[in-house]
């Protein structure tokens, strides 16, 4: 079981650094084509330019040749803000040299992890560099997404978009990870990307059950996602008490504690008064349900130290956060905390943003520094903290 040690882990850690002859510079589409085109295939450069990665501080980490001019190796690296990892999108040229330079750069920044998207990285190449292959995510486009796209017409697609339903999970088929600190002690959970804009709470609960070995990969599908959401929703969001009650009803043997440091209705700041009123009634009904079922609601402020303690007991913490820091917009969102490493908590985020180059590889096994997670999990105008702690049972 990993103990909490005060090893400093900074935010995304991407900064200028030219030590050991390695070039680290902001990625500017078009400006570095002359240097990159000598070693990077055209389709790789096209992928690098296809998304607006500016929110994730894209950098080129390059290794100059012996004459100090032309690059012999390079990698495009990015990371979500306020996190403790670095992601290689692709490595080109002398790939082992490029990856070695990225890993050294990440170590120098005190980061916990390096990931590598599997667009061009083979399992053998990644393993030779010390990386472990990530399990392929559940719910890929070959399942619900592809079937839906093949069978729907324009009117069905428009209706789906109006309902806020998401797109099939985007990103590479494979990915790889290298931990630069102690790895979390337990095997990783499967990754599942939410299939709507509002089912994140349900997905995090299912992730916790799957990680605990109580839900098979075959059972973890879109029907399970939408069924649990329907039981937990406050239309359309899942608030902490409703989510905790739904978890208890579905899995009575799993110990559940709800943490919510306010007795007022939550996640209603963005709504007009007439829309708030009836949702507040439902939230009061959820509190009554929790009382009848014997699900405790702890009104104290849940600390990061308490979250760490729960994770080190191998419980799971479904944590309500704001996406403002990691994605740039103020939206309440559920993530599943399932492990710890020195200085950071490891989460599963069921949502990614392909428009910014953000994929499931970013969202899976995502280390977030303690201080960053503390800030993210103060939600709404009042900075409320809400969580559901699920014991293994």
Automatic annotation (TrEMBL):
Descriptive protein name: Acetyltransferase
Organism field: Streptomyces griseoviridis
Keyword Transferase assigned: yes
Keyword Transferase: yes
Protein origin, superkingdom: Bacteria
Region (Disordered): 1-21, 138-172
Short name of one Pfam family: DUF3335
Bias kind Basic and acidic residues: ranges: 146-161
Molecular function (Gene Ontology), one example: transferase activity
Keyword terms: Transferase
Coiled-coil annotated spans: none
TM ranges: none
